Structure formats: C-alpha cells, structure tokens
Amino acid sequence: MKLHEYQSKQIFQKYMIPIPSGRVASSSGEARQIAEELGGRVVVKAQVLITGRGKAGGIRLAKSAREAEELAAAILGMEIKGLPVRKVLIDETVNIQKELYLSVVHDRSLRKPVMITSFAGGVNIEEVARTTPEKIIKIPIDPLLGLRDYQARDMAAAIDLPRELWKSFIDIAHGLWNVFNDFDATLAEVNPLVITSDQKLVAIDGKMSIDENSLFRHPEMTDYRNLDGESAVDIEARKFGLSYIKMDGNVGCLVNGAGLAMATMDIIHILGGVPANFLDIGGGASAERVSAALKIILMDSSVRSILINIFGGITRCDEVARGILTAIRDVPTNVPIITRLAGTNSEEGTGLLKESNLLAANSISEAVRMAIAAAEGTA
Ligand code: GDP
Ligand code: MN
Prior knowledge:
By secondary structure, the chain is of the alpha+beta class. It contains twelve helices and 19 strands. It has three domains: 72 residues, ATP-grasp fold, A domain (Dna Ligase, domain 1, 2-Layer Sandwich), CATH 3.30.1490.20; 129 residues, ATP-grasp fold, B domain (D-amino Acid Aminotransferase, Chain A, domain 1), CATH 3.30.470.20; 144 residues, 3-Layer(aba) Sandwich (Rossmann fold). The strands form five sheets. Strands 1, 8, 9, 10, 11, 12 and 13 form a seven-stranded antiparallel sheet that branches. Strands 2-7-3-4 form a four-stranded antiparallel sheet, covered by helices on one side. Helix 2 packs antiparallel against helix 3, helix 5 crosses helix 6 and helix 9 crosses helix 10. The longest helix has 17 residues.
C-alpha cells in the first residue's frame, strides 16, 4: 500500500525529519488560503501515487497566493499517467542548494533492509543508478540491531556532506530507519533531501509503501488507504477477501486454495494455454464470495473461457455452485464456463449446475483441455 507524499511527510515529521511547512488542499480556494498563510511563495504539488510528477507537470512554483490558486485549479483538473489528481500539497518553497537521496528498502539478495544514499539525488535518480551506480551508496542494516551511528556517519562521509550537516543527517537517517521499521514499510524514501541555501537539511519529497500483510498491526493506517490508486477489481477483491492477480492470458481461473490455484495455472500452461488470472477464493468460501469472484473474472475483457476448479474439503461444492448460479444470473455472459467440482458435496453441487448451460468436467486435465479449447474458440 503506497502512501501519498503528504501522508509520508506527516509521518516523517513525527520522527524528527525536517519537512517544509505546508498542508494538503482539495480545492483551489483552499490552496489559496494555505498559500496566504505561508506567505505566498509556495510549491503546488499533485498528490498522485506515481513517480515523476515533476516531469509530468504536476509540481509548480507560485510567487503569490493568487498564482497558487490558479496553479492548484489547473493541477486539480489533471490526470497524471491515468490517475486523477484529487489533492494538492501546498508547501512553503525551499531554496535548494543541492539535492541528495536517502531511502530504506528491503534487499532481497542480502535478505536485509538497506539504507541507500547519494549526493546525486533529485528527479534523475533512476538514471544515476543506471549509468553511474558508483554514486549510489548502500548500507545493509541488521534488523535486530537497527541502524548504527557509525553507519550513518560512514554515509555522511561517503556523500561528502559538509561537516556542519552531519548531526542533522545522522538524525534524519535514524528517523527514516525508525519509520521504515515501525510501519512495516517496504519503502521509505526522501528524494530529494535538500541542502538549503541557509545550510539546513530538509525532506522536500517523501514516499512510503507499507506491507499490506502488516495492516492488522496498524489499524490507524486504514485512514491512509488511497483507493484512487487501485483498480476497481482490486478494491472489489479485497472487499471479499479474495486473492486475485491479473495475468496475461485468456483462461480465467476460479480455484479454492493457493496451492491448487498455482497447480491449475501450471496445468493450463503445460497443456498449451495461458491463464488470465490467479484467483484463490480461500477455504470454506460462501456463495456470496464465489459469486463476487466470478464477477471479478468476468470484468476482464481478455477472458475467453473460465475454469472453475474446486477441490472441496472445508469448501462445500453445493455452496460454490450456488455462488456460480447467482453470478451468472446477475451478470449474464456468453463466456464458456467449465466446472470441475470434487470433494465435499460434489454431487449436490454438480446437480445444482445441471440446469445451467455450464460445461462439467470429471478431472482437472479434462477441465483444462475444455477451457483451453473454449478460449481458442475450437470447443
Ligand atoms: P517528484 O517528481 O514526484 O519526485 O517530486 P519532488 O517533490 O521530488 O519534486 C521534483 C523536483 O521539483 C525536485 O527535485 C525539486 O528540484 C523541485 N522542487 C520541489 N519542491 C521545490 C521547492 O520548494 N523549491 C524549488 N526550488 N524546487 C522544488
Ligand atoms: Mn521526488
């Protein structure tokens, strides 16, 4: 789950990372009022969950509150890379002398978090990392020990930071590590961390991603969820507790259990087809959840056939069948649906589906062959 810049910066501030004064606005009038409070010279920043807002025209400097109002009106009407801008952050401007980079992420090959810093921060950091990787400094952090003071000092030295800024840099590095750790983040980033013309360090941009699996430990984070950045399908899937991942193929899959779902996708591949999605309805799914799952698959226009593969244990096949019938009643479709129901109450389930024009199969391989043939239009 990604947080907006203004949300990340609110968190950074609680961890003693200096940020510019500012507030978020949802209308140009509000933007004007905030700009007035800040003295007129402000930066107006689109709050959208993508990188490169600056290059896309979503970050503009205003010299007066009136100009801030105009720029806010323009930016609030924008779509940046397909995402509508619903809020703008109005921050006091900062006189930038130099742009640094500082972040914490997990390094999978090291199996540890790493703190990354560079004296070449700013909007071209990806380019810097690609063309001059020696300018990027990475320090692995032992999660049990946390960031050590000497590590923060080593980083300050490695980026040639002026001595008078070391204390501030070390405090910011500790703050960012603590943010990363306390919030179960997968990313905590300040880019740029600027040296101002009056020789202070300020985080003028902030980015955080939080591991969704940890959200139960952070109930306060539910207010931070940004539905704008998620597709309708993802929102719907979460609402019903379904694990849904869109793939490139045309055979929709509705399966109970992650293991069986993966095996089903493998079999589709082995027999020459390509799955359109991974979808695990979980154990003991109700008819309501099954119906929601089938509707989600039907929202994908690249789906040419649907394979429903159920191995009933806790899950009851009759309950699954009721869900299927509800879905095809609510959302009539011409997409061929192939069902393979085995295990608990399979006979009742199959019986319930007899009246519908779904295709029943007796084994996984038969079901997969039928689904692939139907997707290719040769059934
Ligand atoms: P991003 O493009 O989404 O990463 O947005 P940033 O918040 O990082 O802003 C992009 C760039 O805009 C920064 O690297 C700065 O060069 C510039 N910028 C942002 N805020 C200010 C500001 O207050 N004053 C000045 N002069 N430039 C700013
Ligand atoms: Mn940035």
